[in-house]
Amino acid sequence: MSALPAKLAEIQEDFLALEQKDRLLLLLEFANELPELPQKFQDHPDLLERVVECQSPVFIFVELDAADTFHLHATAPRESPTTRGFASILAQGLDGLTAEQVLKVPDDFPQSIGLTEAVSPLRLRGMTAMLGRAKRQLRERLA
């Protein structure tokens, strides 16, 4: 297994350091910290891609800025805290990485943060799909 980038490793450690019930509270904190969409995406929601594997409507867009650093933008309804939390973990944990670092993140990262007993497998598949979509969009931008 490849080493996680520092931000994702820290997030993983934070979750694993908690008891199961407290992991859901941390996920809720992440849900409340999902960054707002930049104005260009608020004005053009058609730029965002829906992650259909998620039970709740979540939309993402990835970009590389002028310095070739990665940014994941996501939106999900406030009444879907699990989905928002997962999107926020990825947005915060991947932000500022290089494309190479993002592509090396293990596809099973969502299963490694200790939530397999706290949330349904369907919800974890949604987070895995978000990560997969982000990597696919990144590969398309690099091509």
UniProtKB/TrEMBL annotation:
Signal peptide: none
SUPFAM superfamilies reported for this sequence: SufE/NifU (SSF82649)
Domain Fe-S metabolism associated intervals: 13-136
InterPro entries: Fe-S_metab-assoc_dom
Family under the similarity heading: Belongs to the SufE family.
PANTHER family referenced in this protein's UniProt entry, alphabetically: SUFE-LIKE PROTEIN 2, CHLOROPLASTIC (PTHR43597:SF5), SULFUR ACCEPTOR PROTEIN CSDE (PTHR43597)
Protein name per Swiss-Prot or TrEMBL: SufE family protein
Organism of this sequence: Cryobacterium luteum
Lineage of origin: Bacteria, Bacillati, Actinomycetota, Actinomycetes, Micrococcales
